[in-house]
Amino acid sequence: MPHEKPLLRFGVIADPQYADLPPWLEMNRHYANSLDKLGRAIGVLNGEDLSFVVTLGDLIDRGWESFEPVLSVYKELRHESFLMPGNHDFLVASEHLADVHTRLGMPAAWHDFSRGGFRFVVIDGNEISLFSTPEGHPRHTLARQRLEALLAEGAINAKEWNGGISDEQFAWLEAVLERARAAGEKVVVLGHYPLCPENEHNLWSGERLTGLFARSGNVIAYLNGHNHVGNLGRAGNTWYVNFKGMVDTETESTFAVVEIFADRIEITGHGREQSRTLTL
Fold first, then answer.
1. Are the beta carbons of 121 and 112 closer than 8 angstroms?
2. Could you tell me the pTM of the whole model?
3. Residue 138 lies inside a defined structural domain of this protein
4. How far is CA 54 from CA 112, 167, 173, 230, 239, in A?
5. Tens digits of residue pLDDT in 24-38
6. What percent of the chain has pLDDT over 70?
7. Phi/psi of residue 143, each to 5°?
8. Does residue 214 fall inside a structural domain?
9. In whole angstroms, how large is the CA radius of gyration of the chain?
């Protein structure tokens, strides 16, 4: 239908990864250029009718001082903004590690909210990792154990730059999905790390989450960044959309507008991001 109105529209940005550093040409990462790309993306998104804009992690590449320039660009955004950290946002001096979520204006490391009749759930895949807590912290020790177990299994995602979630966060996620199902709400889960298809960037033990989503039956999409080349998967009723990284390439940006309809999700890609129609 030509004039069918979506139930909800929102913007998506992934991995600006700003730092005042020379480019890493082998990986095609142009850290300093992200401020300009982000500013232009926000200019486009400001011209759209959106409920909010979510950034799926890695606002900075490293250094606490990098947050100020990138967050000042976000001040130009006229829409509600949801930020979350990726692994690079913790590449700061250890005294700042506990302040990263606050710096990004988050109500909590993991949380949920409702917009347009849909439940959005922000998970924190950095919780159990080698970078979000200092050496000697219980979560750091647990991360070391988990990584060693994954390495012993020969897991493709047994990488120091990935992370996982605690049993506590998993139980919380399960409860949120259960409440949403009881309320008749469809759910979109937002995170930094991919879950599906199998990839070296995936969340540690991500199959626990894909299994949970399949059992729950009401998670229509999981949206993430981290793997800068992007990806797409589907398992059960859930689409898994990996958005491309803004930091890659010298001048071409990447971001998207997502529209949810009763029977499909429409993604309008800008720059290097693909446009997709995902049937529900």
1. yes
2. 0.97
3. yes
4. 13, 25, 19, 16, 17
5. 999 999 999 999 999
6. 99
7. -60, -45
8. yes
9. 18
Reference 15, options 194, 173, 165; nearest CA is 194
CATH code where residue 74 lies: 3.60.21.10
In a domain, 1, yes or no: no
* Tally of domains in the chain: 1
Rounded to whole angstroms, how far apart are CA atoms 155 and 135? 24
Strands 219-224 and 238-242: parallel
Residue 264: pLDDT band with limits 50, 70, 90? very high
Looking at the predicted structure, is the pLDDT value of residue 239 above 90?
A: yes
Kind and range of the H or E run holding 85: none
Residue-wise DSSP of 129-151: SSSSS-TTSHHHHHHHHHHHHHH
Determine phi and psi for 72, rounding to 5 degrees: -70, -30
Cα 193 to Cα 58, 60, 117, 164, distances in angstroms: 11, 16, 25, 9
Express each pLDDT in 4-25 by its tens digit. Answer: 899 999 999 999 999 999 999 9
| Other residues' Cβ atoms within 10 Å of the Cβ of residue 243 | 29
Whether 2 is in a domain gets the answer: no
Domain, as residue range, for 106: 8-279
Contact (CB, 8 A) for 110 and 124: yes
